Amino acid sequence: MLDPGTIGLATAVFVASTVECVEACTIVLAVGMTRSWKSTIVGSILALLALSLIVALAGVGLRNTISQSLLQLIIGALLLVFGLQWLRKAILRESGLKAKHDEENIYRREQEEARQASHLMRGGLDWFAFVVSFKGVFLEGLEVVFIVITFGLSASLRNPHSMFIASMAALAAFVLVASAAVIVHKPLSSVPENLLKFAVAVLLCTFGTFWSTEGLGYFTTDHDSLEWPGGEWSLLAVLAAWIIVSTLSVRALRRLYPVGVSAPAATGAVK
Amino acid sequence: MRYLLGFFRFWYDFVIGDCWQIAAGVIVVLGCGAWLAHSQVIRAALIPPVEGIGVVLVVVISLLATARGRAG
Predict the structure, then answer these.
(1) Which domain holds residue B49?
(2) Which of A7, A30, A58, A82 lies in disulfide reach of A110, CB 3.0 to 4.6 Å?
(3) B10 in a domain, yes or no?
(4) Residue A207's closest CA among A146, A271, A270?
(5) What's the complex ipTM?
(6) Chain A window 206-245: which residues touch B at a Cβ cutoff of 8 Å?
């Protein structure tokens, strides 16, 4: 059960979910403390229900309709595109060419917008608080859902419990972050978000590279998945390669472009 | 029509984001891999590592292009 793939799966989903939950929490806290907790909580719960439905429908639907290698190829390619976007931004942040994510700054901006918005009431709810919390939780959660489905489905080809493990890892991250937010009652800016984003990006790229290239076996005559030399253990080599590439890229960019540009701080769902 | 465009716009932003070159690069690299797998030009066991190197090149090229644009 505890093979490298399963450990990597649980770690990647947990860390990715933690990052997204921290961002969603910032929005929920800002709107809840400025407007209405009732409307904010209703919006957040509805978003979580919608996300759970997507996981259930997409997970079962995709698993039962596509061949193993094609599933690996499609999911691996999506994961790779998604992961490379994260990695590119993480490397640019570390090399000073892009502003780092600042939860305190985002929190202040969200609160300012919440104060200035109109107080329209619909169905007994503060509509602004409801819509912003729903959108915030749904959009941040959609990335978690994407990662849970892609990781869970791809790994389920080797381990039938992968979807369950991925869902539980995401749930554990949600419970951890939500509990911390309830206790401290302010944005979780002490979470090393930029470092976590870097780690998630490397993990997404690792699994995306591994699965998408295995899925290329769909184009062989027997349509069976290709095998990396060393099987699943080569995941460690791919991981090490991505860490080395990322580290060298940061160093090279710092040396090539030593003067960082003053990019605006990242906000909301923008990574 | 507006909602349909909004729907596609959302998924484009979600998956492809602000650097379409990465998505295009991944498609090119995997396309080459599909051809390698189909034509059996090299041993099947070599395709995954070769593809991995191709993907690394995609991210390096996109980084250099972005950095040059921002710093310049």
Answers:
(1) 18-71
(2) A30
(3) no
(4) A146
(5) 0.89
(6) 209-210, 212-214, 216-220, 226-229, 234, 238, 241-242, 245
